[in-house]
Amino acid sequence: MVWLTLLTVLMTDTAPPPPDSHLALDDVARVVEPKGPIQCPKIALVSYRGDVIRYASPLRVNADFRDRLRRFEAVVRETAVEVYGRAPSQITHLGSFNCRRIRTWPDYLSEHGLGNALDVSGFVFPPLPRRAQAPVDLPRQLTRGFRVRIDPDWQGTDGAAALHARFLHTLTQRLVARLDIFRVMLGPAYPGHKNHFHFDCAPWRIVEI
User: Fold this and answer.
1) DSSP, res 112
2) Mean pLDDT throughout 4-8?
3) What does pTM read for this prediction?
């Protein structure tokens, strides 16, 4: 597994992935020329709509990352049921596969260029089922359908917005604790990520949410 000391300055969580978590893409070189056209490695990609929770539009990802996304969806469902009394009907996103460099580190290929990353922008919730038991602190307006967005809900402080913030913060805390899902997790604390969570499985660990 490749470990890039260049990136350690960004780490707020430096725990390495478990020793048995080697993925096929760990051995793919990420170093590229910092300028000019780039050619991404030829990686077999699959179309994935989501098994536990559907994505707003299909993703193009590699098979290993698809398996991590299934685990992610399960954590989303568990957390959402606790906070809102039901799971979201959709996960909204800003894209998965995209052959490009890391914007702040142009010497390196983005994990999007390997189908090994996803940018999540929010969640769509259906109305609470008629016979479902609502959590005791659920505001009445949240028994109807609604959306949760990373921006502005990450910093919500009052009413429904505060509950959305609790959902997002609880979700990310659980994902950070799960070393078997994502290795890199970036969010509003990281420049350029105010409106989304970036998740990937690069062969290093960076957490700055």
Assistant:
1) G
2) 30
3) 0.90
* Rg of the chain over all Cα atoms, to the nearest angstrom: 18
- State the residue range of the domain holding 109: 5-32+54-208
Comparing CA positions, the residue from 38, 128, 48, 139 lying closest to residue 93 is 48
Phi-psi region of 95 (alpha: psi -120 to 50; beta: other; left: phi over 0): left
Give me the helix-helix angle, 159-177 and 63-84, nearest 10°.
140
Closest residue by Cα to residue 96 from 58, 43, 151: 58
Cis peptide, bond prior to residue 17, ω within 30 of zero: no
42 part of a folded domain: no
Is residue 98 a part of any domain in this protein? yes
- Would 28 be classed as within a structural domain? yes
Q: Where are the beta strands (DSSP E) in 30-186?
A: 46-48, 54-55, 59-61, 90-95, 101-102, 105-109, 117-125, 146-149, 184-186
Reduce the DSSP state of residue 80 to 3 states and report it. helix
How many structural domains compose the chain? 1
Measuring CA to CA, which residue among 77, 112, 71 is closest to residue 91? Answer: 77
In tens, the pLDDT along 73-96 reads 999 999 999 999 999 999 999 999
Torsion angles phi and psi, residue 75, rounded to 5: -70, -40
